[in-house]
Fold this sequence. Notes:
Blueprint: E1 2-7, E2 11-18, E3 21-29, H1 38-49, E4 57-62, H2 65-79, E5 84-85, H3 106-119, E6 123-128, E7 131-138, E8 141-149, H4 151-161, H5 180-206, E9 212-216, H6 220-223, E10 231-232, H7 236-247
Parallel strand pairs: 1-4, 4-5, 6-9, 9-10
Antiparallel strand pairs: 1-2, 2-3, 6-7, 7-8
Amino acid sequence: MYLTIDIGNSFIKFGFFESNELLSTFSLPTLKSIASYKKPIEQKYLSLQGLGKKVEKIIVASVVESLTKKIIKLLETIFEVKPLDFTYKSSSKFIFNNDNPSEVGDDLIASYYGAKRLYGSNCVVVDLGTATKISLILDGAFQGCLIFPGLDMQKKVFEEKLPHLDWGEKPTKNLVGKNTKDSIINGFYYANIYGIRGIVAKILKTYPIIEQVILSGGHSNTVKDYLNKYTFNPNLVLMGLNEVLRED
């Protein structure tokens, strides 16, 4: 069994794989202290051990450098396996056609590779995390991406600048809100949704060779009904990391 970890700005996501099958996944909030991570990781592993599963390989992708080494050390203590610290050099099959591959975030690289392996050499990946990222893959190579504020970032700005205002949990079916709560939450969501639609439509027109558009990331489940023409895979980063372990 393989363990894949995606350390993001808002959450740390864990995925346990048997070959190419995702057995179990769970998430924990990204915190500065790692003391609270040990127990839930051990509990999840204990439940899988009851099924006769043992972790043989571990890979860690991270966009939070201050946590990377601490998490790797914790995992090595729990599983007695030395984790692989994922980078843009982790696979000889990575192909980059952008200016500087070392600047590409681990999550973008993992989702690129997952898309390439699972969906083909020509596709677009829409990743809704703390930021919203749209990546272009052509002929199996990562070409580059667009990055703009995601739902979490937009909400944080409102919390800091307009703390007296409140908003709803989900956007309403009507585009235009009828009260302050609905107006704000609709603005958050529909700005992202229609921004994504417009950008993807432009990419597809420019590159008709594209075969798939994949929707992924922590907020993808929230907006998938509005982007239902895209292939939904919320675990693409974990699957990309698993592909690296499988070929190792």
